[in-house]
Every structure is written in C-alpha cells, then in structure tokens.
C-alpha cells in the first residue's frame, strides 16, 4: 500500500472525514486489520483564509507548498489537498513536489462523464464558484456547469465558512441548501456537484431531486485506487 500525504486542516472537519473514509475504504477492500497508510499535515486555516479573502493567491500557495514539501520529506508517495477551494493553487502545489498529485476536480469531472451527464449544477464556496480552476476539467469534457443564482451564493458561502468548517449542522441551512439544489435541477442540471468537502455533512441524496456527486467521496475513491495500486 502506498503512503498517501494529505494536506488538510481546511477545515479540520473535512480532514477528519477524509481520514475516516480512507480507513473505511481500506477496511472494505482489504479486510482483516488493514488500515490506511496516511501522513497528514493539518495546516492552520486562518492565514490561508486571510490570503484568500485578500486575493493573495501567492501567499496561499506558499503556505500549501511548504505543507506539500513537508509531506514529501516525511515519505509520502503521493499527495492530495483535502479541500476544494484551495485547488485554486493546485498547479503551484503540484509543481513544487516530485509526487503524483490527486486532483479533486479532475476526479469529479471524470465521474460525471462516466455518469453520462452533460449538464450539472455546482455548489461551493464563493471563490470556487467565481473562478474557472474548478470548472475547466468539466468544460474540457464537454460538460456544462451551472451555478446557484447570484443572490444565493453569499448565503451558501456563509454556511460553509461559518458553520460547516466548524462542524456545525443547522436544519435551517439544510433547508436553504435544499432549495438551491432544487433550483439548479429546475434549470436543467442532471446532477449536482457538491464542490465543498464539508457540504456532504449537511445534505444527502434525499435533499436533491437529481443525483449528487460528493467530491469528498470521489476524491477518497481515487486515493484508494492509487494507494492500493488500481491506478
């Protein structure tokens, strides 16, 4: 089993979910007392969030580059970033280490393509929804991506950063997200991409009228395939 380096802490609840799912996946695939070989660097999220809010992508990248290099120095054989938004600087992180980089948007776009869906909704942080670093892999595969309505995006971002990254789950926020999902389905989305690693803590398949793509689950499955030699 290859040693996976996980760059986490953005936020910690998503990293904990990655760790749980990776171990459950190894257990399901190998049985016995097998567990996931994982090296985690859990960074302090506040300086990264400050850099994001200031639009200082170089500062964000530098923090994550240092984290990725420490994982390589610790013996990791491949790395992933346990967050969607921070893939805004994925190219810089990947270029800074001599390791395979498991990209969450590439894995998700491949999964959507496999589901033969040509139009999907994307729900994520404001940064992810405002830039093309996440949607490009979909466009390259001929998949149209639609977003929540402009007036809904601020509340989606607030719930992610003020509640979900802290592990806070509120029924009112679930209702809000359910309405957003239904709205995108009503505009023709054949599936919904949950492009925030904490969003699956709030909503599940029962909350959406169309199939959902949980990016955390997809990323973990990609990582398991890589760790166990399927890819």
From TrEMBL:
Q: What class of enzyme is it?
A: isomerase
In this record, what's one Pfam family?
Answer: Asp_Glu_race
- EC number annotated for this UniProt entry: 5.1.1.13
Q: Which GO terms describe its molecular function?
A: aspartate racemase activity
Alphabetical list of Gene3D superfamilies matching this protein: 3.40.50.1860
Which keywords does UniProt give here?
Isomerase
Q: Which residues form a coiled coil?
A: none
**Quick check: keyword Protease in the entry?**
no
The UniProt entry's sequence similarity note says: Belongs to the aspartate/glutamate racemases family.
Q: What is the official name of this protein in its record?
A: Aspartate racemase
């Amino acid at each position: 089993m290859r040693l996976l380096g996980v760059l986490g802490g953005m936020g910690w609840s998503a990293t904990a979910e990655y760790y749980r799912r990776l171990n459950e996946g190894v257990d399901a695939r190998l049985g016995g007392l097998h567990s996931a070989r994982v090296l985690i660097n859990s960074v302090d999220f506040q300086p990264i969030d400050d850099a994001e809010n200031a639009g200082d992508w170089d500062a964000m990248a530098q923090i994550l580059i240092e984290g990725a290099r420490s994982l390589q120095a610790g013996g990791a054989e491949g790395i992933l970033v346990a967050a969607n938004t921070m893939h805004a600087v994925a190219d810089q992180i990947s270029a800074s280490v001599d390791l395979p980089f498991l990209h969450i948007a590439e894995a998700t776009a491949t999964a959507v393509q496999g589901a033969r869906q040509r139009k999907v909704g994307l729900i994520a942080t404001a940064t992810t929804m405002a830039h093309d670093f996440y949607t490009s892999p979909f466009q390259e595969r001929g998949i149209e991506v639609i977003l929540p309505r402009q007036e809904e995006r601020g509340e989606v971002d607030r719930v992610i950063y003020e509640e979900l990254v802290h592990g806070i789950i509120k029924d009112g926020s679930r209702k809000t997200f359910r309405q957003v999902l239904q709205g995108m389905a009503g505009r023709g989305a054949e599936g919904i991409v949950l492009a925030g690693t904490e969003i699956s803590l709030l909503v599940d398949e029962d909350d959406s009228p169309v199939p959902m793509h949980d990016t955390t689950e997809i990323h973990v499955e990609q990582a398991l395939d890589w760790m166990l030699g399927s890819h």
